[in-house]
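Late entry, evening session. Most of the bench is empty. Finally got around to the prediction I had been postponing all week. Sequence below, unchanged from the version circulated by S.P.
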Amino acid sequence: MIKPNVNEKLQDVMLDEAVENALADGEDIENCRFYGDPFPEASGRLIEFHGCVFEKCTIGENEIERMVFTDCVFIRCDMSRCNLKKSTLQRVEFRECRLIGASFENAVLMSVSFGKCQMDFCNFSNAKA
């Protein structure tokens, strides 16, 4: 497995502000560190994250399909029942995350690892791994 390539110097940003700015400007979110933030509502919107670290964030029941995560790390995040349908994850690590009931339906996963995660009832239907 190819590990995520994350820059050592990350900008600490609030997740909701980063998503709001990305949607307004049509730009990707790059080299950011998010700590303890809830994931904002972004239903049906394409947002791309590159080289980001999410630590202790809550990514709950949002309909965040069509997301792209490249070279990202999720640490101790609560992603129970999150919907990552049709998302693309490339070189992504999940460490000690709660992914109970998470849906990766029709997602594309390349070089993705799940270390010490709770993954009861995860849905990987039609996912390409």
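Two things to note before I forget:
The first strand starts at residue 11 and ends at 12.
Strands lie at 11-12, 29-30, 32-35, 48-50, 53-55, 68-75, 88-95, 108-115.
Will write this up properly tomorrow.
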